[in-house]
Structures
1.
Amino acid sequence: NAGVMQNPRHLVRRRGQEARLRCSPMKGHSHVYWYRQLPEEGLKFMVYLQKENIIDESGMPKERFSAEFPKEGPSILRIQQVVRGDSAAYFCASSRGLLGNEQFFGPGTRLTVL
Amino acid sequence: EDKVVQSPLSLVVHEGDTVTLNCSYEVTNFRSLLWYKQEKKAPTFLFMLTSSGIEKKSGRLSSILDKKELFSILNITATQTGDSAIYLCAVEVASSQGAQKLVFGQGTRLTINP
């Protein structure tokens, strides 16, 4: 049973470009969460999604960031017009929801903005 | 604002020692407390605690939750160099939107010297 998969593992972008981060949850998991880990800081919640629904985006910056979890395919975290401060590790987690709330994490995408 | 505080932030011990890591929290709508181990990549799930006073055990690791005093401890006995990692404490909270999200502490960086 494959775990949570994220790609790419490393992403380098220049200021002003777009970054797209993908997350495929564990088999049987329908709940996806995105977290950001800045250097030397703990993980911070960004957004929680179920299929085709954003449930809680209270941790997401209001501008330039968006997330989706379509009916088919992976969840996507999109960052438009990236700035240096967006450089971080972005982790995706998934859970079964009400059937089991343990969140299992993917390997993360390390975004570097030049 | 929901808050999770871990101590110590950093700990260096010798192989074979026993360590105790602390996590205190101040949140609204507590649902559970989770411990993760983070090496160079994804946080790996260790324990999920929902009830006070019930110890969870996995090999040399054990953890317990005190919901009255709002803290948890993670014990590691007979430490090995492979236990070197950052240990993350997270509290699952229910948000106003009905979602569950994790609020993380800063982590404890544990180093085991041979």
2.
Amino acid sequence: DAMVIQNPRYQVTQFGKPVTLSCSQTLNHNVMYWYQQKSSQAPKLLFHYYDKDFNNEADTPDNFQSRRPNTSFCFLDIRSPGLGDAAMYLCATSRTLREGNTEAFFGQGTRLTVV
Amino acid sequence: AQSVTQPDIHITVSEGASLELRCNYSYGATPYLFWYVQSPGQGLQLLLKYFSGDTLVQGIKGFEAEFKRSQSSFNLRKPSVHWSDAAEYFCAVLNTGFQKLVFGTGTRLLVSP
């Protein structure tokens, strides 16, 4: 059974039109990550939630925002997508270190196309 | 800040031959290290992890990795590669202070008949 679920798997959006990607988890993990992965590149961390703290990477563009209304759900909002934002977006969850076994579980990703 | 280097962008191995993928990390404290595999268009799957203890760790699909603190390395190995192992392999290190997981640039494995 899928434990980290990303919807949709494929998203096409227009240049400049706001888009939201979603991630849900059934693992009750406190840590959630959003990564951007462009073709043939490593996943690049955009944000992560560690317990109740939100951590924004210094080089994450202001165009990207995130919301986490509860433990199970997390959203990535792209306010005005540009062609350069076309990528695979990966969500991952993990336990905190003090809870032990802190491996990250990944969803299948959402491939975003900007037209 | 932590970082991970995977010096090989591509590696081609004959089916049945042994494999070693290199990973070097930079982190001030005791590292938590991981290897993930990614097939095209898919998410990442954990192969194995090192937190502490025995420096030779076993993972899924016949993979193993050895942590060498003196060399700041965590190389992935497999004694006999199968065609289904062709994929992208990522090494990662966890910043334990911020629980931030950072990936290396990846190594694409090609398996020849």
